[in-house]
Specification:
- The protein is an alpha/beta fold and about 240 residues long.
- The structure holds pyridoxine-5'-phosphate.
- The site of pyridoxine-5'-phosphate has 19 residues, from strand 8 and helix 10.
Amino acid sequence: MTKLCINIDHVATLREARAANEPDPVHTVSVCELAGASGIVCHLREDRRHINDRDLRLLREVTKTKLDLEMAATEEMKTIAREVLPELVTLVPERRLELTTEGGLDLTRSHLHLRDYIPALQEKEIEVSLFIDPVKTQIELARDLGVEYIEIHTGEYANAIREKDVEREWQRIAEAARYATSLGLKVNAGHGLNYLNVQRILEIKEIGEMSIGHSILSRAIFVGLDRAVRDMLDIFRLHA
Ligand code: PXP
Protein backbone atom coordinates (compact mmCIF):
# COMPACT_ATOMS: atom_id res chain seq x y z
CA MET A 1 0.00 0.00 0.00
CA THR A 2 1.14 3.56 -0.66
CA LYS A 3 2.52 5.11 2.52
CA LEU A 4 1.07 8.25 4.07
CA CYS A 5 3.35 10.81 5.68
CA ILE A 6 1.76 13.74 7.48
CA ASN A 7 3.09 17.28 7.17
CA ILE A 8 2.43 18.90 10.55
CA ASP A 9 3.64 22.47 9.84
CA HIS A 10 0.14 23.92 10.23
CA VAL A 11 0.00 22.92 13.89
CA ALA A 12 2.98 25.17 14.48
CA THR A 13 1.38 27.86 12.30
CA LEU A 14 -1.62 27.89 14.64
CA ARG A 15 0.66 28.16 17.67
CA GLU A 16 2.55 31.05 16.07
CA ALA A 17 -0.74 32.88 15.39
CA ARG A 18 -0.68 33.66 19.12
CA ALA A 19 3.06 33.31 19.66
CA ALA A 20 1.97 30.91 22.41
CA ASN A 21 2.95 27.37 23.38
CA GLU A 22 -0.11 25.51 22.10
CA PRO A 23 -0.94 23.59 20.05
CA ASP A 24 2.39 21.80 20.20
CA PRO A 25 3.34 20.09 16.91
CA VAL A 26 5.31 17.55 18.92
CA HIS A 27 2.04 16.21 20.37
CA THR A 28 0.74 15.36 16.90
CA VAL A 29 3.38 12.71 16.27
CA SER A 30 2.01 9.88 18.40
CA VAL A 31 -1.55 10.64 17.27
CA CYS A 32 -0.54 10.38 13.59
CA GLU A 33 1.60 7.30 14.14
CA LEU A 34 -1.02 5.43 16.20
CA ALA A 35 -3.60 6.24 13.51
CA GLY A 36 -1.32 4.51 10.98
CA ALA A 37 0.80 7.20 9.38
CA SER A 38 4.16 6.01 8.06
CA GLY A 39 6.05 9.22 8.64
CA ILE A 40 6.10 12.79 9.92
CA VAL A 41 7.08 15.69 7.66
CA CYS A 42 8.06 19.19 8.74
CA HIS A 43 9.56 22.15 6.94
CA LEU A 44 12.12 24.21 8.84
CA ARG A 45 11.99 27.50 6.97
CA GLU A 46 14.70 30.10 7.06
CA ASP A 47 12.29 32.58 8.70
CA ARG A 48 11.02 29.96 11.23
CA ARG A 49 7.46 31.04 10.53
CA HIS A 50 6.03 27.77 11.88
CA ILE A 51 8.34 24.90 12.84
CA ASN A 52 11.31 26.10 14.89
CA ASP A 53 14.59 24.56 15.99
CA ARG A 54 13.16 23.33 19.30
CA ASP A 55 10.28 21.60 17.50
CA LEU A 56 12.64 19.88 15.12
CA ARG A 57 14.85 18.59 17.92
CA LEU A 58 11.86 17.18 19.80
CA LEU A 59 10.20 15.84 16.66
CA ARG A 60 13.38 13.88 16.04
CA GLU A 61 13.25 12.47 19.55
CA VAL A 62 9.61 11.37 19.50
CA THR A 63 9.15 10.23 15.89
CA LYS A 64 9.27 6.44 15.78
CA THR A 65 8.34 5.99 12.12
CA LYS A 66 10.30 8.24 9.79
CA LEU A 67 11.11 11.93 9.97
CA ASP A 68 11.22 13.79 6.67
CA LEU A 69 12.79 17.24 7.01
CA GLU A 70 11.90 19.63 4.20
CA MET A 71 14.45 22.38 3.84
CA ALA A 72 16.20 24.72 1.45
CA ALA A 73 19.72 23.76 0.36
CA THR A 74 21.50 26.33 2.52
CA GLU A 75 24.60 25.95 4.69
CA GLU A 76 22.58 26.63 7.86
CA MET A 77 20.12 23.84 7.05
CA LYS A 78 22.89 21.43 6.16
CA THR A 79 24.46 21.90 9.60
CA ILE A 80 21.10 21.41 11.31
CA ALA A 81 20.23 18.28 9.31
CA ARG A 82 23.62 16.72 10.08
CA GLU A 83 22.98 17.29 13.79
CA VAL A 84 19.33 16.24 13.92
CA LEU A 85 19.67 13.24 11.58
CA PRO A 86 16.21 12.83 10.03
CA GLU A 87 15.80 9.65 8.00
CA LEU A 88 15.03 11.75 4.93
CA VAL A 89 15.77 15.30 3.83
CA THR A 90 13.56 16.68 1.07
CA LEU A 91 15.20 19.65 -0.60
CA VAL A 92 12.71 22.30 -1.67
CA PRO A 93 12.99 25.77 -3.19
CA GLU A 94 12.16 28.51 -0.71
CA ARG A 95 11.05 32.06 -1.36
CA ARG A 96 10.58 34.41 1.57
CA LEU A 97 7.24 35.86 0.57
CA GLU A 98 5.52 32.67 -0.61
CA LEU A 99 2.58 31.29 1.37
CA THR A 100 3.72 27.73 0.71
CA THR A 101 6.28 26.01 -1.52
CA GLU A 102 5.27 27.23 -4.96
CA GLY A 103 7.00 24.88 -7.35
CA GLY A 104 9.67 22.28 -7.73
CA LEU A 105 13.42 22.84 -7.68
CA ASP A 106 14.95 23.90 -10.98
CA LEU A 107 17.80 21.40 -11.18
CA THR A 108 19.13 22.89 -14.41
CA ARG A 109 20.04 25.95 -12.34
CA SER A 110 20.92 24.30 -9.03
CA HIS A 111 22.58 21.01 -9.97
CA LEU A 112 26.14 22.33 -9.60
CA HIS A 113 25.39 23.58 -6.09
CA LEU A 114 23.54 20.38 -5.19
CA ARG A 115 26.35 18.16 -6.49
CA ASP A 116 28.51 19.48 -3.67
CA TYR A 117 25.68 19.77 -1.14
CA ILE A 118 24.02 16.34 -1.19
CA PRO A 119 27.01 14.11 -0.24
CA ALA A 120 27.38 15.92 3.11
CA LEU A 121 23.89 14.65 4.01
CA GLN A 122 24.32 11.17 2.60
CA GLU A 123 27.58 10.62 4.45
CA LYS A 124 25.50 10.96 7.65
CA GLU A 125 23.19 8.22 6.29
CA ILE A 126 20.41 10.69 5.59
CA GLU A 127 18.53 9.79 2.42
CA VAL A 128 17.85 12.70 0.10
CA SER A 129 14.78 13.54 -1.94
CA LEU A 130 14.44 16.36 -4.48
CA PHE A 131 11.08 18.09 -4.84
CA ILE A 132 10.65 18.55 -8.57
CA ASP A 133 8.00 19.11 -11.19
CA PRO A 134 7.03 16.08 -13.31
CA VAL A 135 9.52 16.92 -16.08
CA LYS A 136 11.87 14.43 -17.76
CA THR A 137 15.00 16.59 -17.70
CA GLN A 138 14.52 17.30 -13.98
CA ILE A 139 14.22 13.58 -13.29
CA GLU A 140 17.39 12.84 -15.28
CA LEU A 141 19.28 15.52 -13.36
CA ALA A 142 18.01 14.06 -10.07
CA ARG A 143 19.31 10.65 -11.12
CA ASP A 144 22.69 12.20 -12.03
CA LEU A 145 22.86 13.79 -8.56
CA GLY A 146 22.71 10.35 -6.95
CA VAL A 147 19.72 10.95 -4.69
CA GLU A 148 17.58 8.10 -3.45
CA TYR A 149 14.20 9.79 -4.00
CA ILE A 150 12.32 12.41 -5.91
CA GLU A 151 9.09 13.96 -4.69
CA ILE A 152 6.85 14.89 -7.58
CA HIS A 153 5.15 18.24 -7.12
CA THR A 154 1.41 17.62 -7.50
CA GLY A 155 0.39 21.28 -7.15
CA GLU A 156 -0.51 21.82 -10.81
CA TYR A 157 -2.68 18.71 -10.75
CA ALA A 158 -4.35 19.83 -7.51
CA ASN A 159 -5.02 23.31 -8.88
CA ALA A 160 -6.45 22.13 -12.20
CA ILE A 161 -10.21 22.61 -12.47
CA ARG A 162 -11.28 21.65 -15.99
CA GLU A 163 -11.41 17.91 -16.54
CA LYS A 164 -9.01 18.01 -19.46
CA ASP A 165 -6.47 19.96 -17.41
CA VAL A 166 -6.76 17.49 -14.53
CA GLU A 167 -6.26 14.63 -17.00
CA ARG A 168 -3.21 16.28 -18.58
CA GLU A 169 -1.58 16.92 -15.21
CA TRP A 170 -2.36 13.40 -14.04
CA GLN A 171 -0.71 11.98 -17.17
CA ARG A 172 2.40 14.09 -16.54
CA ILE A 173 2.67 12.75 -12.99
CA ALA A 174 2.03 9.14 -14.03
CA GLU A 175 4.65 9.31 -16.80
CA ALA A 176 7.16 11.02 -14.53
CA ALA A 177 6.68 8.40 -11.82
CA ARG A 178 7.15 5.60 -14.33
CA TYR A 179 10.23 7.20 -15.84
CA ALA A 180 11.86 7.94 -12.48
CA THR A 181 11.26 4.38 -11.33
CA SER A 182 12.85 3.06 -14.53
CA LEU A 183 15.95 5.13 -13.66
CA GLY A 184 16.13 3.54 -10.22
CA LEU A 185 14.70 6.44 -8.21
CA LYS A 186 12.13 5.98 -5.47
CA VAL A 187 9.12 8.24 -5.97
CA ASN A 188 7.13 10.29 -3.48
CA ALA A 189 4.47 12.86 -4.30
CA GLY A 190 2.79 15.76 -2.60
CA HIS A 191 1.37 19.26 -2.46
CA GLY A 192 -2.29 20.16 -2.59
CA LEU A 193 -3.53 16.60 -2.25
CA ASN A 194 -6.86 16.10 -0.48
CA TYR A 195 -9.44 13.38 0.22
CA LEU A 196 -10.82 13.64 -3.31
CA ASN A 197 -7.95 14.41 -5.65
CA VAL A 198 -5.61 11.90 -3.99
CA GLN A 199 -7.70 9.03 -5.31
CA ARG A 200 -6.45 9.20 -8.88
CA ILE A 201 -2.88 9.71 -7.71
CA LEU A 202 -3.18 6.48 -5.72
CA GLU A 203 -3.70 4.67 -9.04
CA ILE A 204 -0.07 5.43 -9.88
CA LYS A 205 1.58 2.43 -8.29
CA GLU A 206 5.13 3.74 -8.74
CA ILE A 207 4.47 6.36 -6.07
CA GLY A 208 5.58 4.89 -2.76
CA GLU A 209 4.75 7.72 -0.36
CA MET A 210 2.49 10.75 -0.28
CA SER A 211 3.23 13.79 1.85
CA ILE A 212 -0.02 15.48 2.87
CA GLY A 213 -0.58 18.31 5.32
CA HIS A 214 -3.17 20.99 4.67
CA SER A 215 -6.21 18.84 3.91
CA ILE A 216 -5.67 16.44 6.81
CA LEU A 217 -5.11 19.19 9.38
CA SER A 218 -8.10 21.11 7.99
CA ARG A 219 -10.31 18.07 8.50
CA ALA A 220 -8.79 17.51 11.93
CA ILE A 221 -10.34 20.78 13.13
CA PHE A 222 -13.78 19.21 12.72
CA VAL A 223 -13.26 15.51 13.38
CA GLY A 224 -9.98 15.34 15.30
CA LEU A 225 -6.55 14.41 14.04
CA ASP A 226 -6.84 10.68 14.71
CA ARG A 227 -10.04 10.47 12.65
CA ALA A 228 -8.66 12.69 9.89
CA VAL A 229 -5.59 10.48 9.44
CA ARG A 230 -7.65 7.28 9.58
CA ASP A 231 -10.12 8.64 7.00
CA MET A 232 -7.25 9.36 4.60
CA LEU A 233 -5.79 5.91 5.21
CA ASP A 234 -9.17 4.31 4.46
CA ILE A 235 -8.95 5.92 1.01
CA PHE A 236 -5.38 4.64 0.59
CA ARG A 237 -6.58 1.13 1.47
CA LEU A 238 -9.39 1.28 -1.09
CA HIS A 239 -6.78 1.88 -3.79
CA ALA A 240 -4.19 -0.62 -2.52
N1 PXP B 1 5.49 18.28 -0.14
C1 PXP B 1 6.21 19.42 -0.08
C2 PXP B 1 7.58 19.43 -0.65
C3 PXP B 1 5.68 20.58 0.52
O1 PXP B 1 6.41 21.71 0.57
C4 PXP B 1 4.38 20.52 1.08
C5 PXP B 1 3.80 21.73 1.76
O2 PXP B 1 4.57 22.10 2.84
C6 PXP B 1 3.68 19.30 1.01
C7 PXP B 1 4.25 18.21 0.38
C8 PXP B 1 2.32 19.15 1.60
O3 PXP B 1 1.43 19.95 0.91
P1 PXP B 1 -0.04 20.17 1.47
O4 PXP B 1 0.08 20.87 2.78
O5 PXP B 1 -0.70 20.98 0.42
O6 PXP B 1 -0.64 18.80 1.64
